[in-house]
Known about the structure:
Elements: E1 2-8, E2 11-17, H1 29-39, H2 46-53, H3 57-74, E3 102-108, E4 111-117, H4 122-132
Antiparallel strand pairs: 1-2, 3-4
Amino acid sequence: MIVSTIGVGGHEYTMDQEPVRRRRRVHSGEFKAEAVAACRKAGASIAAAALERSINANLLRRWVVEAERAEARTLPAPKPLPAPSEAFVALPVLPKPDNTPIRVEVRRGALTVSVQWPRSAMHECGIWLREVLK
């Protein structure tokens, strides 16, 4: 029981109230399915669909997730891959050697140095470049 007192003009009024119990609404499966279908339309939002039906958007979102999970359980299992043929032999694929040289151009003031270095000597090119740029 809730008791509230209100003071108006020096007088106090007391009001006894029993708390009002809200009952949860129960929605039919048909109502839920129709609401979920409305959410799946192109450009539809869950919030708008919930407002149209006077329900909470979080509740409608839960129904959508539950429907998606139920559909995932009813999907057929993926087909197994065929067994490899005895005639098939897997071969490793080797990368194509890249013989393009490394090209470096260093500019210092009016001086420009252009160098072409073989890719097979990348490490040495790095050492040389580090020394030049000190």
